[in-house]
Amino acid sequence: MKRSLMLFVAASALVSGSAFAQADLAKSKNCMACHAVANKVVGPAYKDVAAKYAGQKGAEDKLVQKVMKGGSGTWGPVPMPANPQVSEAEARSLVKWVLAQK
Question: What is the pLDDT of residues 15-52, one digit of tens each?
Fold first, then answer.
């Protein structure tokens, strides 16, 4: 029982540490200037993005490209600019984090 509790605590720390790391990455790449996790700013809330793309095949790849190259029309008339400062690996990490929001 004690070992199970220790494993649970360790796993929880890894998951929450990863979530904090992705939030820090989003801040460092200026994503949070236009987005927030729970509410619309200029762009949609990350929880709304996660809900819209939940279960959609290819959503991760599509959103990685949108993060890097920008896009328009999906969430209204305000375009999302391209983000050349975000590598593909960083974009994939950010998209996985966004899609995990509830």
Answer: 444 666 789 999 999 999 999 999 999 999 999 999 99
Q: Which amino acid is at 50?
A: A
Burial degree of 91 (CB within 10 A; 0-12, 13-18, 19+): buried
Can you give the residue range of the structural domain that contains 94? 2-99
User: According to the model, what pLDDT value does residue 19 have?
Assistant: 62
pTM: 0.79
What is the per-residue pLDDT for 22?
Answer: 87
CATH number at residue 16: 1.10.760.10
How many structural domains comprise the chain? Answer: 1
